[in-house]
């Protein structure tokens, strides 16, 4: 669990504003402690039969100054908390955007969103209620105790006994708040993750008539969050009555004891009023200290969850220059090469076993093979979503590990099968990450991918919103947008995962012609199941069981690969009956 040390490290860059807020809070406390002395003079004067108007004026000025200092201090605390929360969210989201894909595979996106949004809000409350007010509360408490001791040590002993017993009970409650807070934040994260899961697959939920199932799951998660929050709220609620009871008991005891001392002449009525007023101000720093300790206990869970995110491994470039492997000019070297690549999502279960192949700088290479053979894993390694366990992936003859991720992915474009789009306009999605694009290039790519007619039919053309995840476009249109976006970025190699999966026969024929045209300018690597795509490839790699089982042209594989012949026969049979 996180604690004071993590909090101090988090607040390192905000020492000035935090100190300013603490100083204002402390100033308000000191101004409050001056008031009992003036009140004593005013009461003693009134008891003697005359009012001291300058004393009353000074007392009113002190009240106004105290209110101003406390109000300004709270605003500075709130401003500091908001600034720190924004910076923390910037750090957290920037870190999440660079986290390795393997870490996302192991976690839940909804829970990570909860940590970036909800947990950082808890930290904001932690900052507003701990650092500034806690420090000021400690100093104010010391000053209040000193003033009470100077006014009447005997009455102070009565107050210490009552407040001490109450404070001990509060500390016992606070220790349990930490665990309850962490449990509650985990429950909130699980609820958000379940909601993100249901809404992210809402079409599947509706199609499977699973609304009651998902509603029950969400209700169960909400109930867990409710129970966890209620446990924490119950513990926090115990602190309020304990503090109030201590203040009320101490106030009553002071009045009774003080009245006895006034009647005996041991103190004046002004002394009793001053002590009573000072004692009421003692409650404020005690409450601030408790709030600070309680906030740390509640916020430690949030800080711990945030620290877990910041501990996730990120993609880091290796600033190491290495020589080109092999001779020849860049144009003559393969754009991509796998050399004895082994890889597994779990070290004990390799998916790729010694895969090796080259992709020339021009032309089209097709990957075929059964589901689960390793084709998508080859693409993931080519895009550097993962790194090989053994062997090397080379880009233009250089080990890809020693090329920056940004430079590598600028050279290797990817078109996924499900063609995800982002909320925004069609133009936003086409130009996403593409860099400067001329109108001429945009028109050329729109014509190549058949999107010119699609854009013409939309209400606002290229400026038409596509909806969340591109829901307003069909699957085939989303795929064309993904291909067009990749072409506009002008990579040296384009990876296409089943680019014709969502296309009708006419569109498939047009796209095949487009790919042949693009293959004259750069390299294409295509995962294909339709043989209209396979036949046009200059080289075909048959992937089976995590190895390259065969390689060659369509005609060569028909003669040399029994698996490829069976695959061709099955595909042609299916197409005949389609």
General description of the model:
The protein is an alpha/beta fold and 578 residues long. The protein folds into two domains: 4-310, Up-down Bundle (ABC transporter transmembrane region fold); 336-577, P-loop containing nucleotide triphosphate hydrolases (Rossmann fold, 3-Layer(aba) Sandwich). The chain contains 20 helices and ten strands. The protein has a six-stranded mixed beta sheet, sandwiched between helices. Strands 2-1-4-5 form a four-stranded antiparallel beta sheet, with helices on one face. 37% of the residues are buried. One of its GO terms (cellular component) is plasma membrane. GO terms for molecular function: ABC-type oligopeptide transporter activity; ATP binding; ATP hydrolysis activity.
Secondary structure topology:
Layout: H1 4-10, H2 15-47, H3 53-96, H4 101-106, H5 109-129, H6 131-151, H7 153-200, H8 202-207, H9 211-263, H10 269-310, E1 336-343, E2 352-359, E3 363-368, H11 375-382, E4 390-395, E5 398-399, H12 405-411, E6 412-415, H13 426-430, H14 439-449, H15 451-457, H16 475-488, E7 493-497, H17 505-518, E8 523-527, H18 531-535, E9 539-544, E10 547-552, H19 554-560, H20 562-577
Cα-based radius of gyration, to the nearest Å = 35 Å
Overall number of strands: 10
The CATH H-level superfamily of the largest domain is ABC transporter type 1, transmembrane domain
CATH-scheme architecture of the largest domain: Up-down Bundle
Q: Give the neighbour order of strands across the main sheet.
A: 6-7-8-3-9-10
Tally of domains: 2
